[in-house]
Amino acid sequence: MTSFIELASANLLSPMVLFFVLGVVAALLRSSLSVPEAVAKALSIYLIMAIGLKGGHEVALAGISASLVYALLAGVILSFLLPLLAYGALRATTKLPAVDRASIAAHYGSISIVTFLAAVEVIRGLGYGAEGYMVAVAAVMEVPAILSGLWLAARSSGHSDATAGAVGVDRTLLREVMLNGSIVLLVGAFLIGAVIGDKGMSAVAPLIVDPFKGVLCIFLLDMGLVAGRGLRDGWRKITPAVLLFGLYMPLLGAGAGWLSGFALGLQTGGVALLMVLCASASYIAVPAAMRLALPDANPSISLTLALGLTFPFNLTIGIPIYIAAASLI
Amino acid sequence: MTSFIELASANLLSPMVLFFVLGVVAALLRSSLSVPEAVAKALSIYLIMAIGLKGGHEVALAGISASLVYALLAGVILSFLLPLLAYGALRATTKLPAVDRASIAAHYGSISIVTFLAAVEVIRGLGYGAEGYMVAVAAVMEVPAILSGLWLAARSSGHSDATAGAVGVDRTLLREVMLNGSIVLLVGAFLIGAVIGDKGMSAVAPLIVDPFKGVLCIFLLDMGLVAGRGLRDGWRKITPAVLLFGLYMPLLGAGAGWLSGFALGLQTGGVALLMVLCASASYIAVPAAMRLALPDANPSISLTLALGLTFPFNLTIGIPIYIAAASLI
Amino acid sequence: MTSFIELASANLLSPMVLFFVLGVVAALLRSSLSVPEAVAKALSIYLIMAIGLKGGHEVALAGISASLVYALLAGVILSFLLPLLAYGALRATTKLPAVDRASIAAHYGSISIVTFLAAVEVIRGLGYGAEGYMVAVAAVMEVPAILSGLWLAARSSGHSDATAGAVGVDRTLLREVMLNGSIVLLVGAFLIGAVIGDKGMSAVAPLIVDPFKGVLCIFLLDMGLVAGRGLRDGWRKITPAVLLFGLYMPLLGAGAGWLSGFALGLQTGGVALLMVLCASASYIAVPAAMRLALPDANPSISLTLALGLTFPFNLTIGIPIYIAAASLI
Amino acid sequence: MKTYAKKRMEIIIEAPFLNRLLDHLDQQGVHGYTVVPAIAGKGHGGNWSRDGLVSDAGRLVMVICILDPSDASTLLESTYAQMSNRIGIVSLGDVEVVRNDHF
Amino acid sequence: MKTYAKKRMEIIIEAPFLNRLLDHLDQQGVHGYTVVPAIAGKGHGGNWSRDGLVSDAGRLVMVICILDPSDASTLLESTYAQMSNRIGIVSLGDVEVVRNDHF
Amino acid sequence: MKTYAKKRMEIIIEAPFLNRLLDHLDQQGVHGYTVVPAIAGKGHGGNWSRDGLVSDAGRLVMVICILDPSDASTLLESTYAQMSNRIGIVSLGDVEVVRNDHF
Ligand SMILES: Nc1ncnc2c1ncn2[C@@H]1O[C@H](COP(=O)(O)O)[C@@H](O)[C@H]1O
Ligand SMILES: Nc1ncnc2c1ncn2[C@@H]1O[C@H](COP(=O)(O)O)[C@@H](O)[C@H]1O
Ligand SMILES: Nc1ncnc2c1ncn2[C@@H]1O[C@H](COP(=O)(O)O)[C@@H](O)[C@H]1O
Ligand code: NA
Ligand code: NA
Ligand code: NA
Asked: How far, rounded to the nearest angstrom, does the alpha carbon of residue F51 sit from its chain's CA centroid?
């Protein structure tokens, strides 16, 4: 399977991955290199806006099809079910308390939009075709996993302890989750992209399209810095069994994505992207929601897993694996 | 008048307006979406720098003409007189105290550079000609209105209460007003644009010219967020009569701009831009100056009016109206 | 020498220099114009990343040569020795205490990457050839000067007072100095640039290459604001003799760079760049290191000199002088 | 100048919880508060730094609230009840102010 | 360790007024102060948030000033006179410091 | 509600020295602290402003540390020894907290 090795090494030498590695190394060496919080937020606004606009524009060009609707449905169902898989796996292999299992499960059912972006660039670079509506699938996969996770937590705490009431999904929480800034921006930019047409798109293209990969590099440098800092401090808090979960869970998720993509009849790139969505874990919308809903869950475990292990895993060797697997179909 | 409806709907579906609407909606829904303050400032630095450079460059190409001098004079006079109109209208239709009337009047006599930018893009998109020196007119219209507003406040407080001394235009205040960051940058960039020539301009064009519309979209998203937040909170503080002022005052101002533009013999785009300048209200330089000079004026009334009502009004239907009116000449 | 006057006036009318001047003027007038700290950091991350990537890419294209190795060696030696020259000059002409002399000497032995960037743009604009590896020379010149400065301080305090221990170069300090964010980013981006090849470079070029000069303008506006503020406040703290040092020391440094560049057989542009490196003084990495290592040194003297005098001197008339001198070879 | 004794409550709390805390303060009839950013910190849960974070999770803010001594005890209790499981701390100090009725 | 009693004055004030306030403190011979940003707040004039603001208006900052108890009363009075109409609050607390002559 | 008396140490210090200060606090067994940014200030060494700075030098931060009164004196002394030559100030105030064992 030479092609996989080629694919993997091309990916590893891409500027995106290298800047991520630079960030991790700098953080592990305790360099003073850092990206100000305001700038990191600006970069994520840019990236989310760009991906939303481009996705909406592509869907508008292609029109709403049955396959789009099926893919959205599949995304919602996967996002609901993957946390159950993650929760079960954690119960089988680790000694984490139920509330931590539920919180981690919610992270893994949801998605990492930056992993998705990186995969889109690799897939486009390789010339594989992918459905334009995959951005919409990404958007619908953000939230259901949070609800699954909360249900898991409520269920377990109902059995075991008295503070069950604290876990209930209240209205306020639901609103906060659905109206998380990154979700509103992604959906909003998608809708805008769907209506502005070619003229509107070409007006914003010099900002939104051309410098996109360069901005992604700076953002990945920042992700690397944050991930490295998390690894440095969170390392001691996770057991080998938990660590292992951060490496095999993406593969389980990707497997589910592979099957679903096959069933949906997606193009090679589309299957790979659905695998990436299933394999990736959220570290923007879900952590904030979990701090609100499950204050007893230890945030540093889930963040170390999602950002310190699974994100680098997907970015470096996960994406090539998923593309290779998708191209088998 | 089909062409006006076409014009208005084209404007309403432009990415700029849509991102503003997205911001307003997100703020009204209390989404956590926000643009960090440092980033909003950076965007405004970029926009002001870009508009100044381009304006200065165009004036240098065209040379200093009598019509430029007349237009600058007209701008200064309009900025001095419009507050009197606004103050009178507020006295006739609302029960606001004199100090609030004076403060609001200063806002409406001055200009909104972002409304101006949006109008420039629309006018250019439609292919109307406009004088390159309109940026300079915008710059000279920022400050005189502040002086008018202070004079109105001093005059009224001289009659009615004892704290007249507090309102006097002291030297420090004048310096702070004239040396407001946005004014210094606009004037400075204009002068730089006037001397760097084509070579200098082409060196900075890939940053200053190409991504301009995209940056304007992000800035308008931010303006929408701030305006929506202001509406949410400021709504209850303004009476229907005050609210109405925020909608008819731009039309009064635009009327004055229309007459002046006609008298000056400007091109269609130039007339429309002068109308936009007269119709728009400041929400950067003037609010800060008013907080210093008129601490008794309620800042949330003027901000709700200028940013929550007049700005969206101009952005969505004001600009098409002004263009249609200008094209009648 | 008409050509020098042409060269100098072309430089003085470049947008970069003009925006620096605008910043200085705005600060001296106490305008409220300011660039948020987070944005200034983001701009410096962008500039360092861009210069590193481009430098690494060029070196990879050219391959590692003996002349590259010699140039790096020369850079290290110059950075070690220039502080001795500066220290001696300060002892001969000023009454500053030894610890201040040592601190200032470290600033002048190290380099200003922004001065380097500005010089690269001017040299490229004039069409002179320059070695691609000069970025690497810049990188290796950052740190040795700090060690020299500390050695000078330790030596002098050993003779004169009892707190010698406080000055010793401890391990922690060395790590902090070597792992300063700007140094790690420059070296990291250089290495990334060296491996990503043409494909990787063209992916990031729309962000890294095209808008570069425009970003440099905004950064120089900020440098001007900071320098102007420093001049306003620091003016009274430096004597005429110290002030003079800030103007002749760059010429001494440039002289050393001229000789070395001649000895190394560099191209005209390369000689000019080495002169610029020797003539410029650090205001990012070194000030932070000096605050850690020499808390008794007065930071406002060295900053006023490096940023308030030497930087503007180099930017405006230094660079044309160095290019003219280099073209004599 | 005549001054009045007030209490200064300082709450350091994780950012995602901020809105709920402020809603709670509003409901308790607090007249005012000010929120100040924090950039780094350490506690029993380990240390954190704000640099480069995109999500609100993992970031802390500080809420300063000057209030009447008569309200302090009730507010401390109810705030503490709200927060108990959260990452954060509350402290209470004495200050004097000029405008008695403002707080 | 020997410590000295000082007063800690905390002024929360709208940003456009900051420069004038600092000039006032300078004129009153205050030896030092530190300005800290605020990101949101609520008072009688409603609530505000710094996010996305371009203008200084509508934004608050906090000035901390440690001073000698003997100067506190005069300074409080004069500062209060300067600020009276402004959006903002002043409070005064007790602290101890080591370097008596520094403040 | 039962509260316990603690000390609130506030250290304003130049940013390049922050990491060393925090390491020192860690070594002294301090349970927690919070770092708040400062944006401008004035002292004997003149005034500074954070706007537009790229380097950490010339920028200050504020470290807030709530600790047990029994530890306060030792910590003040050792911190003061560490800092003596640095640009910055330390002050100590009284506060009450609810969770005695947390500090
Ligand atoms: N003793 C303390 N003094 C000041 N801040 C503290 C203290 N303890 C905790 N904190 C802050 O509160 C956060 C959460 O603390 P903890 O709940 O102990 O992990 C820390 O990250 C600090 O920012
Ligand atoms: N009791 C308080 N405690 C802390 N901050 C306050 C308090 N009251 C007012 N503030 C702050 O001062 C600002 C102006 O208050 P006001 O003048 O009452 O509108 C508010 O927006 C808050 O940031
Ligand atoms: N009395 C004071 N109150 C509050 N902050 C102060 C005071 N004195 C000094 N500072 C802060 O500490 C920094 C250094 O002070 P100094 O060492 O006196 O130059 C100043 O820039 C201020 O930010
Ligand atoms: Na997933
Ligand atoms: Na107007
Ligand atoms: Na040098």
From this structure: 22
Give the HSE-up count for residue B252: Cα atoms under 13 Å, Cβ half-sphere: 22
Residue C87 has pLDDT above 60, yes or no: yes
H/E stretch holding D8:
strand D4-14
CB contact under 8 A, B213 and A192: no
Q: Using the CB atoms, write b or e for C242-268: b if 16+ within 10 Å.
A: beebbeebbebbbbbbbebbeebebbb
Quick check: is B51 in a domain? yes
State CA D33 to chain mean position distance: 8
**Residue C43, domain member (yes or no):** yes
pLDDT at D85 over 70: yes
In terms of DSSP H, where are the helices of B127-211?
134-140, 144-160, 171-178, 181-208
Q: What pLDDT does E49 receive? A: 76
Token pair, residue B246, equals 């925020």
Q: For residue E39, which residues of chain D lie inside 8 Å, CB to CB?
A: 35-37, 61
Number of domains into which chain B is organized: 1
ipTM over 0.85: yes
CA A252 to ligand 4 centroid distance, Å? 10
Six-digit token string for F39 = 């944006």
Subunit contact C33:B203, Cβ cutoff 8 A: no
Q: Give the residue from F23, F44, F55 with the most C CB atoms within 10 Å of its CB, the best one to mutate.
A: F55
Residue C112 has pLDDT above 90, yes or no: yes
d(C-alpha B191, C-alpha B193), whole Å: 5
Asked whether residue C85 is domain-assigned, the answer is: yes
**pLDDT category, A158, cuts 50, 70, 90?**
low
pLDDT digit string, tens, across residues C181-213: 999 999 999 999 999 999 999 999 999 999 999
Quick one: pLDDT band at residue E65, thresholds 50, 70, 90? very high
Quick one: which of A261, F88, A216, B76 has its CA closest to E34? F88
Contact predicate A222/A46, CB 8 Å = no
Closest CA to D14 of A306, B37, A295: A295
d(CA A172, CA B141): 46
Protein residues placing their CB within 5 Å of the ion ligand 4: A 278
| E-chain residues near F89 (CB < 8 A) | 32, 66, 97, 99, 102-103
Q: Strand pairing partners for E65?
A: E9
pTM: 0.95
Q: Is the torsion defined by CA of D46, D50, D56, D59 positive or negative?
A: positive
Q: How confident is the model at residue A165 (pLDDT cuts 50, 70, 90)?
A: very low
Range of the domain at A181: 4-25+37-326
Burial of C69-88, coded b for 16+ CB within 10 Å and e otherwise, reads: eebbebbbebbbbbbbbbbe
Q: What is the CATH number of the domain that holds C273?
A: 1.20.1530.20
Across chain B, mean pLDDT equals 92
Which residue would you say has higher pLDDT here, A287 or B234? A287
Q: What is the pLDDT of residue A169?
A: 61
What one-character DSSP code corresponds to residue B64?
A: -
H or E element: which one contains F11? strand F4-14
In a domain, A206, yes or no: yes
Residue B158 has pLDDT above 70, yes or no: no
Residue F87 pLDDT grade (very low, low, confident, very high; cuts 50, 70, 90): confident
- To test the contact with chain B by mutation, choose from E51, E59, E85, E86 the residue with the greatest count of B C-beta atoms within 10 A, namely E51
Predicted local confidence at residue A9, as pLDDT: 86
- Cα-to-centroid distance, C108 and ligand 3 (Å): 29
Contact yes or no for C325/C262 (Cβ under 8 A):
no
Contacts of A64 (CB under 8 A, 6+ apart): none
Task: Quote the pLDDT of residue B168.
Answer: 54
| CB F70, CB E66: distance < 8 Å | no
Asked if C25 is an interface residue toward chain B (Cβ–Cβ < 8 A), one would say yes
